[in-house]
Write a structure and sequence with these properties.
The protein is of the alpha/beta class. The protein has nine helices and six strands. Strands 3-2-1-4-5-6 form a six-stranded parallel beta sheet, sandwiched between helices. The radius of gyration is 17 Å and the shape is globular.
C-alpha cells in the first residue's frame, strides 16, 4: 500500500486545460494572432512555460503576453474547472486508511487554493506546494525532496501521480514510485511504474 501521494494539479487532479487554453487563445487574439486550441494544447501538455516560450519566440511577443494570459486565467469561471472523476474519492479514501495527500504544482498559490476551496478539497491535502515556494521547476527534484524529507516519507510507499513527462522524471529521480495519468497522451521519455486512464484505477494500485 502507498501511504503518500504527491499529486500534480493541472491535468491530474483538475481538468484545467480547457480554461488555460481558452485564456492563452484570448491573449493571442488580443494581438490579432489566430492559433488553434489543439496546437496550443499540444505545447501546454509539456508545460505552460513550454507553450509560452514557443509562441513568444514564434510571434516575437513581449513579456506582457504572459501577464495578460495570467489575468484571463485567474478570472476563469471556477465552475468550469472541475476535478477529474474519482479525484475526491481517492484522496479521501487514502486519508481514511491513514495516508496523506500532497500537491506539487507550478500553479500560483492563490489560484490553486481558490480552486481547491471552491470544490471543498483543501482539507484533503497535508501541504500544497506551489510555484510561490520558490523551488526549481519539475522535473527538478527539489520540490519532491522537500516533501519527502519534511514528512519523513518512505520512498517505497510514496507515489507521484501526474499527466506529463516532468512528473515521471521527477518521481524516478527522487526515488519515489511514479504513476502516469494518461489523460492527454503526452510524450513520456521514461516508463512510469504505473499507467492509468481513470483515477478509479488508482484504488487497485494504492490500497
Amino acid at each position: 500500500m502507498f501511504k503518500n501521494i504527491i499529486w500534480d494539479f493541472d491535468g491530474t487532479l483538475f481538468n484545467t486545460y480547457p480554461a488555460m487554453v481558452y485564456a492563452f487563445k484570448r491573449a493571442l487574439e488580443d494581438r490579432e494572432i489566430k492559433e488553434s486550441e489543439e496546437n496550443i494544447l499540444e505545447h501546454m501538455k509539456v508545460s505552460f512555460y513550454t507553450a509560452a516560450k514557443h509562441f513568444t519566440e514564434l510571434y516575437k511577443l513581449d513579456s506582457r503576453f504572459v501577464e495578460e494570459y495570467r489575468v484571463y486565467e485567474k478570472n476563469s469561471d471556477l465552475g468550469k474547472i472541475i476535478p477529474f472523476a474519482y479525484a475526491k474519492e481517492v484522496c479521501r479514501e487514502l486519508i481514511n486508511k491513514g495516508g496523506r495527500n500532497f500537491i506539487l504544482t507550478h500553479r500560483e498559490e492563490d489560484t490553486a487554493l481558490k480552486i481547491l476551496d471552491f470544490h471543498d478539497m483543501t482539507e484533503l491535502f497535508t501541504e500544497v506546494v506551489t510555484i510561490d515556494k520558490g523551488f526549481k521547476r519539475k522535473p527538478d527534484i527539489e520540490g519532491f525532496i522537500y516533501l519527502i524529507n519534511k514528512y519523513d516519507m518512505n520512498k517505497a510507499e510514496t507515489l507521484v501521480v501526474g499527466d506529463r513527462d516532468i512528473e515521471i522524471i521527477g518521481a524516478k529521480s527522487s526515488g519515489a514510485k511514479s504513476c502516469l495519468y494518461n489523460t492527454n497522451k503526452a510524450y513520456i521519455s521514461l516508463e512510469a511504474d504505473y499507467i492509468v486512464t481513470s483515477l478509479k484505477d488508482l484504488e487497485k494500485i494504492i490500497f
